[in-house]
Design goal:
By secondary structure, this protein is α/β, with parallel strands linked by helices. It is built from nine helices and 16 strands. The strands form two sheets. Strands 7, 8, 9, 10, 11, 12, 13, 14 and 15 form a nine-stranded mixed sheet that branches. Strands 3-2-1-4-5-6-16 form a seven-stranded mixed sheet, sandwiched between helices. Helix 4 links the parallel strand 4 and strand 5. It is globular and about 75 Å long. The N and C termini lie far apart (63 Å).
Length: 328
C-alpha cells in the first residue's frame, strides 16, 4: 500500500484551518480538513506565527505546529506536499525557505501566486529548477459542475462562440482573478481586453474595473459589484443553443437549453433549467483529490504555475491601466 503523502501546511488562518470549524462535518472548506479527510495524505505539521492558531490546529488534527518554517524544518518534518496559505506577500519567502531544505513533490499555493509579477515568475522558475510541481488554488476548477461545463464547451454540446457577463468584487487580482482563471479554463486563452471603466482602487495595489475580456471561444464582460453592499459572484454565458448560469459563487449551476417556441420560427429558452450537480460544500477536498491524481500521473484540472502566472500577467496589465486612468 502506498504511504500517505506528508503535508506541511504553512498558514493556519481561515483557508488553512478556520473556514469550516464552525460548520457541519460534511463541509470541507479548509486545507487542514481536506488533507486530513483524504486517504492519500497525512498532515505532517502546520506553521503559523499565532500561538492560538497553532493550538487550534493541533487540537483538531493532532499534528504538531511550529511558529516558523525554520522551526518545522529543524524538527525534521518531512514534506511531500507544501501548502502555502499565508498572506500573498509572504508566498515567495515560504517557498524559498522550504526549497532550500527540502524537495517536495508538489506545492499548492493560495491565489494569487504573488503580489508582483517578478516574484511570481521567480516562484515558477524556482519550482521548475527543482523539478517540483507547482499548483495554485483556483479551487473552482476542481468542482464537478465546472468540469462538466468545460467538457460541454469543448465537445460542442454548448455551442460557441459565447457571450457573457461576470460579476465580481474585492479586487480584480485578489478575487476577480478566480473568475478570470475559471473563464480561461472554460473558454481558452485570453486573447485581449478592453477597459470599459477604471472603477475604484481596492486597497493600495488592486482595482475594480469593468472590462471586456476576449477569449478563444467567446467574450465576457466583467463588472465590479460592491462587496460592502452584498457579495455577488455570478457568470452568465449565452451560447448558440442555450444559457448557462453560474450562481452563488458556484453553488448553483444551471443550463437552459434553447427549444422551439410557440410561434413558428421562434426559439426560446426552456422554462425548466437543468441543474448541474456541484461539490462546493466540499470544494477544498476536490482540490486535494485532483492533486492526488496529478501526483499519481493521472489527468487533472488543477491550475499549474505557468497558467496561474499567465492569469496574473493579464490581470496586472488591466489593473495597471485602471490605476493609470484613475491618476490621470
Amino acid at each position: 500500500m502506498t504511504a500517505p503523502l506528508r503535508v506541511l501546511l504553512v498558514g493556519l488562518g481561515q483557508i488553512g484551518v478556520g473556514y469550516d470549524l464552525q460548520l457541519d462535518e460534511a463541509s470541507i472548506y479548509s486545507h487542514a480538513r481536506a488533507f486530513d479527510r483524504h486517504a492519500a495524505y497525512r498532515l505532517a505539521a502546520g506553521v503559523d506565527g499565532n500561538p492560538d492558531s497553532r493550538a487550534t490546529f493541533t487540537r483538531h488534527y493532532g499534528a504538531p505546529a511550529y511558529a516558523t518554517v525554520e522551526e518545522a524544518l529543524a524538527a525534521q518534518v518531512a514534506v511531500d506536499v507544501l501548502v502555502i496559505a499565508v498572506p500573498t506577500p509572504a508566498h515567495g519567502a515560504v517557498l524559498r525557505a522550504v526549497l532550500a531544505a527540502r524537495q517536495p513533490r508538489a506545492v499548492l499555493c493560495e491565489k494569487p501566486l504573488a503580489d508582483s509579477l517578478d516574484e511570481a515568475r521567480a516562484m515558477v522558475a524556482a519550482c521548475a529548477g527543482r523539478d517540483v510541481a507547482l499548483y495554485v488554488n483556483y479551487m473552482r476548477r476542481s468542482d464537478r459542475a465546472v468540469i462538466a461545463v468545460a467538457e460541454r464547451l469543448r465537445s460542442g454540446a454548448i455551442t460557441g462562440p459565447v457571450k457573457g457577463v461576470c460579476w465580481y468584487s474585492k479586487g480584480l487580482r485578489h478575487n476577480g482573478s478566480h473568475f478570470v482563471n475559471l473563464l480561461e479554463y472554460w473558454l481558452g486563452p485570453l486573447a485581449g481586453y478592453q477597459l470599459i471603466e477604471a472603477g475604484r482602487r481596492w486597497h493600495d495595489d488592486d482595482a475594480e474595473p469593468d472590462v471586456q475580456l476576449r477569449f478563444e471561444r467567446g467574450n465576457v464582460t466583467m463588472l465590479a459589484a460592491r462587496e460592502e453592499a452584498f457579495s455577488h459572484y455570478t457568470i452568465e454565458l449565452v451560447a448558440g443553443n442555450g444559457r448557462l448560469r453560474y450562481e452563488q459563487g458556484g453553488r448553483l449551476v444551471l443550463w437552459q437549453a434553447a427549444e422551439a417556441g410557440a410561434l413558428a420560427g421562434y426559439r426560446t429558452l426552456a422554462p425548466q433549467a437543468q441543474e448541474l450537480p456541484t461539490g462546493m460544500q466540499r470544494y477544498q477536498w476536490h482540490v486535494a483529490d485532483q492533486l492526488a491524481a496529478a501526483l499519481a500521473g493521472q489527468p487533472h484540472v488543477l491550475c499549474d504555475g505557468n497558467a496561474a502566472l499567465a492569469t496574473l500577467e493579464h490581470v496586472q496589465q488591466i489593473i495597471d491601466e485602471s490605476l493609470g486612468r484613475m491618476s490621470a
